[in-house]
Every structure is written in C-alpha cells, then in structure tokens.
Amino acid sequence: MKACYGLILAAGEGKRMKSKLPKVLHKVCGKSMIDYIIDAVKGANAKDTVVVVGHKADIVKGHLGNKVSTAFQDKQLGTGHAVMCCEEFLKDKDGIVIVLAGDGPLITKETISKVFEYHIESGSSATILTADAIDPTGLGRIVRNENGEIEKIVEHKDATEKEREITEVNSSNYCFEIKELISALRKINNNNAQGEYYLTDVIEILKGEGKKVSAYKTSFKEFMAVNSRDQLATASAAMKERILEKLMADGVTIIDPLSTYIESDVTIGSDTIVYPGAFIEGNTTIGEDCIIGHNTRIVDAKIGNGVEVQSSVIISSEVKDSTKIGPFAYIRPDSVIGENVKIGDFVEIKKSTIGNGTKISHLTYVGDSEVGEGCNFGCGTVTVNYDGKNKYKTIVKDNAFIGCNTNLVAPVTIGENAYTAAGSTITKDVPDGALAIGRSKDVIKKGWVQKRGIKKK
Ligand code: UD1
Ligand code: MG
C-alpha cells in the first residue's frame, strides 16, 4: 500500500464563533475538535500528519505539543494557500495525503481508512468526500457533467442559481496524490467572490489535465463543520449520540440518553446502569455492574465494579469495588475510597484515603486524612485540618469508632480499636483500644424549672 499522510487545516480565525479561543480548540463532548481529527487520522494509520496553524498559532501549537508536525500560514489567504504552506512537509513525500478540515470533528478513522483504500483502488488523482445535504447553503457544490463525472467544485458564493440547486456538497476532506496536488496548487489563483486561494479549484485543474477525480459519498452527519456556536451545539449533540450508542452496544444501560451526558474518553463496563441527569466527564473509567444514579457528576475518576453512586459529585478520585456513595456526597480530588465503603449523605471527602469496609454515613467532613479499614464515623464528624495557614493530617487506624459530633483537631492520630465519645473535641493522640472523651461533664440540676418559676403543664 502507498504511504498515507494527514494534513489538517486549522489556521482560520473562525470569525463566526466570536471567541478568544481558536475555533479548532473548542471542545465537543470534552475534547478539542482538532484532537478528534488527529486521533482519526492516526487511527487510520497515517504515517505522519501536519497541522496548518495561523490564527493564534502559538495557542494551537501549545495545545498540540509534539503530537504532530505543524506548518505556519502567516496570512489566511484561503484553503488552497493553507495547503501550499505545507510544501516543506509534502515535497519529499511520495504517496497520498488526506486533507481534512480542522472544524469537522465527526470524521471517523473508519471513513478515512475506507477513503484511502477507495482512492488507491480507483486510481484517482483526487477523491473528494462528499455528502448530500438537506440544506447545502454556504457549502461548496459538486458539479458533475452529463456522464456523472465530477467537473469541479463551486463555492456557494461563486455559484449560479442553477448550481445552487445541487445538494451534493464538498465536506472539505479530500485525498490527493501528493505530487499531483503540489503541481495543481501552483496553478490556482484568487479570482473569485472571496478573493481567496481555494483548494477546491485544484479539482477543476486536475480534471482539465485529464486526471481522474472521484467522489466518496457518505452521510452528511460525519462532515458537519463547526463554524458557529449553534453548529458547535449540533455537532456536540451528534457526538454525544455516537458516544452513548457505542456504550449501549457494549452492554451499558442508559435509561434516558437525551438527559445523559458522557464525554468521549469515558469507558464504562457492561451491565452498569446510568440514570438520567448523569454527567460523566474527562478521563473517567467505570467498571461493570455499577449504578450511576440521577444527577451524579463524575470527572476524571476511576470507579471499580459494583459501585453505586447516587446524586453525588466525584472529582479526580478512585472508588473501589462494591462501595456506595451518596446521596449528596462530594468526593474531592486525590481521594481513594476503598472496597465496601459507605460514604453517605452530606459527606465531603478531600485528599484522603478511606480503608475497606469503613462507614462514614452522614454529615461529615474528612480532609487530608488517612482512615483505616472497618472504621465507623458517627454523624457530624469533622476533621479540623486547617488553622488558617497550614493544613494538617488526621490518621484514624483500623476499626476505630468515632462518636457523633466529634472534632478531630489535626495533626492527630486515633489508634486501632479506639473510641471517641460523642460530642468530643480531640486534640491529643488516642492510643490503641482507648476511649477518648473531650467534652465537659453533664450537670443535672434537679427541680430547676420549678425553682425558676417557669410554668409547664
Ligand atoms: C470549505 C470549502 C467548501 C466546503 C466547506 C465544508 C473551500 C474554498 N471551501 O468552506 O467547499 O463545502 O469547507 O465545511 O475550501 N483554513 C485555513 N487557512 C485559510 C482558510 C481556512 O487553514 O486561509 C482552514 C480553517 O481553519 C478551517 C478549514 O480551513 O478549518 C475550512 O475553512 P473555512 O473558512 O471554514 O471554509 P468554508 O468556507 O467552510
Ligand atoms: Mg468551515
């Protein structure tokens, strides 16, 4: 097979987005548009890929790092000019290149692979990815002759009334023989409605030279370009549908796809059930047989098997097998919650590890703590971790029992099997097996009500 390369156009300003952020860095289901396209080209085994940057090039380059090569387009003189800026990248290469628009995140690696194959097998000089659009307004039209052969692409602004009736449109993705592309690009000019060097003009030039130009037609959905916020929302909805369909095909139950938001890098095991109002984001993995309940938000987290999360928020943390979280719990970054743990309602955990089988059932704050296995935290426990300047650590060893309304003033250690009495403020370390009482003694004043003359029935 011939060597295949990728070339992504990402130098344009994206004026219609009205944004400080370059268009290709806008996110669709949690991932920048440009990253979807790079992943798709790489997934189709392109040998090397170049991204043309221009508008706010430093920001785009900073985002790309050294994932791909970049070429610089100083002035945005059109898509043809943008490809010309890659001459350095292309000149020593023999083979084919797929040119992709940086604002079309829905393209898949499967389609790119098929286009590579189709292009080579058909012996074409250029293969355009086309689709039938319900509303082709604004897009380049594919003009064919009476034999159905492609003659040229005409931009909407340059098209005649008759040409505007054509519904087959240019997706702005094409495969070219590299040598022929470079030679045709040298012949384009900017005599058109926008005064730009159009890449689309290469098609008419190649055709005029008797070269074979083909179309590879697929669904318009995959080529949806994002030029405005409105189109960003439409593309995001299409991407979300694709993500959820894939998860469902892999055995995940999604009760109401319309009210469920799951981002593209999330993985979920089979027989997990996701309830309406769930937001699962970033680099999150969820195991099998979990219940992700209503109105739960999970970001960059690792969730084991058989975990139940109800109406809670989990950020950048790990939750191990068979643990129950919520309702209304908040697991903040850098926490590791063990197996068979219960984190109940109105419990906040921050930067802490919680050992297997521990129960923290209600109204509790655990921060900067190391909690062992089999512990029980009574309602209203607070780790007092901050003195206004520094944070301090609380250590609670295995099987400790923290009474209701205990303040654990850090730094402090509660020993194995130790108890704290309800309502205690503990400021000293508690040895293994001890009971710590940190509260004033009860005082009972008999007959006090009568003596004060307070009337009671
Ligand atoms: C382009 C096609 C049109 C097609 C449509 C599909 C041309 C002339 N027209 O139009 O036939 O139907 O896409 O969405 O190619 N870019 C640069 N440098 C430039 C200009 C653009 O890198 O000088 C990049 C943009 O960042 C963008 C892509 O090229 O990623 C397409 O540019 P855009 O201005 O969106 O082209 P359209 O007018 O949408
Ligand atoms: Mg566009």
TrEMBL record:
Binding annotation for acetyl-CoA: 385-386, 422, 439
Residues where Mg(2+) binds: 103, 227
Nucleotidyl transferase domain location: 6-219
EC identifiers of the protein: 2.7.7.23, 2.3.1.157
Cofactor or coenzyme needed: Mg(2+)
Superkingdom in the source lineage: Bacteria
Keywords carried by this UniProt record: Acyltransferase, Cell shape, Cell wall biogenesis/degradation, Cytoplasm, Magnesium, Metal-binding, Multifunctional enzyme, Nucleotidyltransferase, Peptidoglycan synthesis, Repeat, Transferase
Region (Pyrophosphorylase): 1-229
Active site annotation, chain numbering: 362
Cellular component aspect of the GO annotation: cytoplasm; membrane
Compartment(s) where it occurs, according to its Swiss-Prot or TrEMBL record: Cytoplasm
Single GO MF annotation: magnesium ion binding
Residues annotated as domain Mannose-1-phosphate guanyltransferase C-terminal: 319-379
Residue numbers spanned by region N-acetyltransferase: 251-457
Pathway(s) it belongs to: Nucleotide-sugar biosynthesis; UDP-N-acetyl-alpha-D-glucosamine biosynthesis; N-acetyl-alpha-D-glucosamine 1-phosphate from alpha-D-glucosamine 6-phosphate (route II): step 2/2; Bacterial outer membrane biogenesis; LPS lipid A biosynthesis; Nucleotide-sugar biosynthesis; UDP-N-acetyl-alpha-D-glucosamine biosynthesis; UDP-N-acetyl-alpha-D-glucosamine from N-acetyl-alpha-D-glucosamine 1-phosphate: step 1/1
Annotated catalysed reactions: N-acetyl-alpha-D-glucosamine 1-phosphate + UTP + H(+) = UDP-N-acetyl-alpha-D-glucosamine + diphosphate; alpha-D-glucosamine 1-phosphate + acetyl-CoA = N-acetyl-alpha-D-glucosamine 1-phosphate + CoA + H(+)
Location of the region described as Linker in the Swiss-Prot/TrEMBL record: 230-250
InterPro entries: Bifunctional_GlmU, GlmU-like, GlmU_C_LbH, GMPPB_C, Hexapep, NTP_transferase_dom, Nucleotide-diphossugar_trans, Trimer_LpxA-like_sf
BP terms from Gene Ontology: cell morphogenesis; cell wall organization; lipid A biosynthetic process; peptidoglycan biosynthetic process; regulation of cell shape; UDP-N-acetylglucosamine biosynthetic process
Cofactor note: Binds 1 Mg(2+) ion per subunit.
CDD domains attached to this UniProt entry: GT2_GlmU_N_bac (cd02540), LbH_GlmU_C (cd03353)
Job of this protein: Catalyzes the last two sequential reactions in the de novo biosynthetic pathway for UDP-N-acetylglucosamine (UDP-GlcNAc). The C-terminal domain catalyzes the transfer of acetyl group from acetyl coenzyme A to glucosamine-1-phosphate (GlcN-1-P) to produce N-acetylglucosamine-1-phosphate (GlcNAc-1-P), which is converted into UDP-GlcNAc by the transfer of uridine 5-monophosphate (from uridine 5-triphosphate), a reaction catalyzed by the N-terminal domain.
Assigned protein family: In the N-terminal section; belongs to the N-acetylglucosamine-1-phosphate uridyltransferase family.
Designated name of the protein: Bifunctional protein GlmU
Species of the source: Clostridium cylindrosporum DSM 605
